[in-house]
Amino acid sequence: LYMSGTKSKYFEGFLAGATVAVTACTALYIISSLRNSKNLEKQRETKLSASSAENTSHCRSTSTAADDAFQSLFYGHESRAGSNGIGFPLSTLDDPTVVGIDKASLTAVHPEYVFLPKEMYKFAVEHLPIVCVDVIFQRNDGKLLLFFRKDKPAANIWWWPGGRMFRGETFAATAERKIRDETGNPSLSVQAVGVVDVWNTFFPDSSWDLSRQPGREGTQTVNISVFCTLSDPSEAVEVVSGSASSWAVQAHRWVSPSEVTDCEDAFDKYVTLNVRQCRSRGYL
């Protein structure tokens, strides 16, 4: 401030040069920071790609299919994790590196699974959805089996044969058991073909409603519908009188698929929808 003349001009030149230098350094710093940021981002992407490759490599070593044709998955006790700490599912039947998966034990149906005490089953119906398998069963003449139910829920309508799934059963095992039991043919060559669909059904009533609290009436069931045929093309099948549960079934009939679908009001929608779904899946 106290300089004048030539010295002042020199000082002004110095300030101008310093300003340019500072600006240039700042620009270089910003450019360098951006480059470092990009390099760090590339490093992160590289690590993520490596992690993804490791996961993909592991996934490719295991099958993406179910353990049978009926969506069953049988697990062992062994689990694995990659080096990145991401866990993998428990190994299934198709993994040759895993031993000790006891399918026979997992699918064992013990007597206490079959005959549940009355109070236990009543409690289950009130507090839990019940898992059932219903069967679209086609005999060799192409006709399908229906039962006329007289027990709640779904009383007084034509319905598919079927019922509660036992612990240890696959969908196929339940379907084949129900057809043999309800037709009265224990040696029938019934063969499950595939799952038709899964339904979540809500009924306003049940056989236990009289002893339940008001507002707790009704039944919820998860219904897996399975299509079955006969493995012996020459085998004839009829329902043995009295073979189906007398408390639940009043009558039976054999119907063609077209009888079910030609008139929308002829049968309950659960019957109609399953026949249509069988057609869409190529079963009929």
Give an overview of the whole structure.
The chain is an alpha+beta fold and 284 residues long. Helices cover 37% and strands 20% of the residues. The chain is built from seven helices and nine strands. It has helices spanning 5-60, 103-106, 111-114, 118-127, 171-183, 257-262, 269-280, and strands at residues 80-81, 87-88, 130-137, 144-149, 158-159, 162-164, 190-203, 219-230, 249-255. The strands form three sheets. It has a four-stranded mixed β-sheet, sandwiched between helices. Strand 1 (80-81) and strand 2 (87-88) form a beta hairpin. Residues 54-61 have low confidence and may be disordered.
Quote the distance from N terminus to C terminus.
Answer: 102 Å
Overall SS class: alpha+beta
Q: How many strand units?
A: 9
Query: Secondary-structure element order, as H and E?
Result: HEEHHHEEEEHEEEHH
Task: Catalogue the unreliable spans.
Answer: 54-61
The biggest beta sheet reads: 4 strands, mixed
The order of strands across the largest sheet is: 6-3-8-7
Radius of gyration: 35 Å
Helix content: 25-40%
How many individual helices?
A: 7
